[in-house]
Amino acid sequence: SQQGEEDPQALSIQEGENATMNCSYKTSINNLQWYRQNSGRGLVHLILIRSNEREKHSGRLRVTLDTSKKSSSLLITASRAADTASYFCATYTGGFKTIFGAGTRLFVKA
Amino acid sequence: DTEVTQTPKHLVMGMTNKKSLKCEQHMGHRAMYWYKQKAKKPPELMFVYSYEKLSINESVPSRFSPECPNSSLLNLHLHALQPEDSALYLCASSQDMGPNPSYEQYFGPGTRLTVT
Question: Chunked in runs of 10, what are the mean pLDDT values of chain B (116 residues)?
Fold first, then answer.
């Protein structure tokens, strides 16, 4: 069963704009991670936020976590065409089990 | 070296064939994973090995048989597959040592499998 649900399913923006993706999950988690996948290729780890953290930054990425609402958001600032990809949240609940959300397909127009 | 390699990149096989997918990492990671990903869907966990022992089997049909010969290698043996098994098969590894492991996973590029 899918742990993380993401919205929007697809997002199209202009280069330079910010992109926000949201993820909701159902059970308690140890941490939540965001991954990027370029078309038909392997996933790349972007950022991890632990259950006791509320916000984390990495370069142009900002992740928030609200464990009371069981939700997280990923903000990409000043987007670039190279950010075009699918973005997945992944929840880790323990014992190696990582469950990926449905994903958001981001398209950044140059 | 933070690379996970997978071979082959593409594989076409008939339903009566036997084939194997291979995955290798040299990051000293002791956890290795197999995922299956259908088009426009998220990866679905199939198997996890920890310290060369099978830790998780997500009720995967027996026509998929994983093997971890050593800490750097992970195989997925395929036999009598069905057309619906056609998908991108992803291998990943993570470091599971330390007091608070993150289980951040490093993924290979995947093997695109087509079953005819």
Answer: 90 95 94 95 94 92 97 96 97 75 86 96
